Amino acid sequence: MKIQKLNWAGIKIECNKKTLLVDAVEDFTAYSGILGYPRTPLIHFSLTTKADYIVFTHLHLDHFDISIIEKCLKPDGKIIAYKKLEKYIPALTRHVIYLDYDEIFTEEGISIKSVFSLDGIGHDQTAWIIECNGFKIFHGGDTIWHNKFWQLGKENQNIDFAFLPINGAIVNFQALGLAYSTIPASMTLEQAFNAAKLLQARELIPIHYNKFSTPYYQPEELNEEDFEKLSKKISQPYRLVEDGYFISGE
After folding, report:
1. Residue 104 and residue 4: Cα distance in Å, rounded?
2. Mean of the pLDDT values across residues 14-18?
3. Which of 44, 94, 120, 203 has the most crowded CB, counting CB atoms within 10 A?
4. Is the pLDDT of residue 248 over 90?
5. Where is the Metallo-beta-lactamase domain (predicted)?
6. Is there a contact between 127 and 169 (Cβ–Cβ < 8 Å)?
């Protein structure tokens, strides 16, 4: 399995001559009024990527980019989505496979499993466990901390990489009708290290950080010392991967 980190929470997986995109977004302008503009350059991958499967955790536009489906999904490709999102995306005319929690889609030696996740502002969301050739990854979208990580680790053993959000963003979405809260709408760095530990993941791969910051979207400020300190405290290895870089699952 070969994995490329894309923008924000996105990854590209290549295995068994198949390509999967998870939460792959190239255009964030729809949320520019809230998130602002990217603080670091974006990776433009759509012109060189043809995907057999496109997978997304939820419908927030920083995780679901419909233009990527149009640009990247092969004519016979499949969209894999959480069952509870079916009523919201009837306009997708491509082949969509909907999975409820703990359901698994298997094809060409690749398995994709939907598991419990919890969105920071109450919208429907799933996390994904993807396995190919004995290598297994967990992708948590922008989940907040919840009490299922113990169970997920026991029921889905031998996770190699846990891709988890770490920016602990405080959101001020009063203009959207949501009351202001000081509780983070995605996991903090410490929560992500703990979640990876409970998932029994070989390594935490941080996602969903260092890209956006506005008065409406206020992320936790991080430095490299924080990573080292928490890794030692929690005994959880991690790896920082820059956008565009590849890591191999062996």
Report:
1. 23
2. 97
3. 120
4. no
5. 19-209
6. no
Cβ–Cβ < 8 Å for 145, 195: yes
Is residue 246 assigned to a domain?
A: no
53 part of a folded domain:
yes
90 close to 99: Cβ distance less than 8 angstroms: no
Compute the radius of gyration of the chain from its Cα atoms: 17
Q: Domain count of the chain? A: 1
Q: What is the CATH number of the domain that holds 50?
A: 3.60.15.10
Query: Are 40 and 157 within 8 A, CB to CB?
Result: no
For the chain, the residue count is 250
* Ramachandran angles phi, psi of 220, nearest 5°: -70, 135
Domain residues for the domain of 185 are: 2-241
Q: Dump strand ranges (E) for the chain.
A: 2-5, 11-15, 18-22, 51-55, 73-82, 96-99, 104-107, 110-116, 126-132, 135-139, 161-165, 170-171, 203-207, 217-218, 246-248
